Amino acid sequence: MSVIKILPSLLCANHGNLAGEIKRLTLAGVDYFHMDVMDGDFVPNFGLGTEIFKTVREHTNIPMDTHLMIRNPAKHIKLFRELGSEIITIHPEADSHCTKTLQLIRETGATAGIAINPETSVESIKALLPLCGHILIMTVNPGFGGQKFMESTVDKIATLGKLATEYKFSLAVDGGINPELIRRFVPMGVTNFVLGSALFRQNPEDVIREIKN
Ligand code: DX5
Ligand code: ZN
Questions:
Q1: What CA–CA distance (Å, rounded) separates 59 from 95?
Q2: Is the pLDDT of residue 45 over 70?
Q3: Residues with catalytic annotation?
Q4: Whose CA is closest to 190, among 160, 148, 150?
Q5: Residues contacting residue 53 through CB under 8 Å, at least 6 positions apart
């Protein structure tokens, strides 16, 4: 069993055949479904609604990793936990009571995570690390699939990669990720890779096989 975890971003899947996409990704051996929830306010786009979570639950047992790109996430934590999220990640830039929200996520039994935008520094979130079981580094500006990976985020990946063992969090990257970048970031301590366009613009099975090998 590989230590690398592959998380397809369902935002980028073919929604005309969502059940089929979920089933084939399950067979291909993905580790989580990455669920991008957007409010059209914190980010300039709308993302997956609750009905998509239900569709995932109906067709697979693969856990869901929920990335909340919404303001004031606290009031929706219980809902996303009940919809089957195993990891719930919030943006500190969108929540003025992060500590409380992370605590709330932990109380539901889910893993609590924070996602940080390209311009958010490690220093600014350091106090939250003891509360987090998961850190997601945004390697594009959040809101849309298909953007280009931002090289300016690499220093932050290196810094958080070094802190992951001490603070016991899993480390993820999200945005413009492809097999070549995975090869580059595994030695730096990244374990969870969100893949959108790099996975869905070709045959997902082939890409997953290439990564797992
Ligand atoms: C962007 C989302 C990502 C995105 C990934 O705001 O958080 O999960 O859909 O898609 P790619 O890999 O195409 O950047
Ligand atoms: Zn995401």
A1: 33
A2: yes
A3: 36, 174
A4: 160
A5: 35, 64, 80, 83, 84, 85
CA distances from 181 to 104, 113, 163 (A): 34, 22, 20
Provide Rg for the chain, Cα atoms: 16
Residue of 14, 36, 117, 136 to mutate, ligand 1, most atoms within 8 A of C-beta: 36
Q: Is 9 in the pocket of ligand 1 (CB under 6 A)?
A: yes
User: Is the CB of residue 197 below 6 angstroms from any atom belonging to ligand 1?
Assistant: yes
**Ligand 1 atom at shortest distance from the alpha carbon of 176:** 14
| Cβ proximity of 120 and 92 under 8 Å | yes
Tens digits of residue pLDDT in 50-63: 999 999 999 999 99
145 lines ligand 1 (CB under 6 A): yes
